[in-house]
Amino acid sequence: MEGLGDLVVELILSKMAPTDAATFACVNRRFRVWASDDNLWRRFCSLDLDLKSPIDPLGSPCPSFKIAYKVWRESFGMYPWSLVKRTKRCWAVIETWLATNFPEVRNTLRKGASEREIKEAEEKLGVRLPPPTRLLYRFHDGQDLKFLETEDAAILGLIGGYWFYSQVANVYLLPLAQVVLDTKKFSERRFASQSKCVIVASSFYDRKLFFLNCCSGHLYVGTRNLFVDGDMIPCVPQLLVKCEGVEAHDAMLLWLEEHGRRLRDGVIGIREEWDLRIICQFPDTAPACSTAVTNGVQVRASAVFVPETSGPKDEIDDKYCFAYSIRMSLLSDGLILDGMYHSSCQLQSRHWIIRAGDAVVGDVKGEAVIGKDNEPERQIVRSGSGAIPS
Question: Any idea where the ApaG domain is (predicted)?
Fold first, then answer.
């Protein structure tokens, strides 16, 4: 390769992996100069870590992209590099969406925990966290819970939630210190099924708790019988979970990856009501959201499963509870009725039939938002819940 021109060598290096480029630099002084070009390492940092500037894992600037890449590799040397990149991408998707759509939640994300801090938490808990979850905490140590002391407590959960009737769920990720406190408090109930579980996420108002099993890597959410007999149900299909090896991915990582995908793709988004903004778990796109337009009025309906009010093991018919959201809005073209154009309309009553398959499980009738006109680009939202028989 000594006789090759610079452009040819640059092309060859651009096809190499970072480890191969580092090996290439060891051949001789000339090769080391080629392989040390910072534009090359800028590319590696961008592809592997989505870095736009040379910074270390704590966000501090580095002299060059090459040094930045080296610092990242050394900092995460105890983990498979493919898992590090995957975890970094998971957080990048979420952070990018938050920065654009909900910076208030982005500002609650804590800086990453150190290996020492993670080990201290593990010692207090008496468990070892699965590698993917450890990496998630290396990038962000959950959310800063100081916001719980403010009036924004109900709305700044990273996972978000829903509300219907008097039920409010808005889930946030716990920092390690709170994981320890909440897990120890819950473990006093001595449910054998949770002996290797830690609480990783929680809702502020109505208690909705998420448990990570540190042995199996599975993620669970508590049912309405959680505080009675420790009943929980899986959040992620258990066959998808793989805790060991280069391609490891526990349910915690899969859960956050799916959450980021749903945010990025617009499956879920921000809902505004009563001057509040929340990451709302009611789907906004098909097939999980049904949409129909009649005479210029758009109606969208969607539902979510509510585990904290469900009892799959109960010996009753109404085991499964779902919350529904009905959104009605007048499209920008206005209402066309009997050939006449109307710029606004009024919702006076409501009647919807709730079905599970072919069975009618709910029949809701009542007054609506009397005295309020629905103007173009504004929407009326009605929420409620219904139980589905087993």
Answer: 291-390
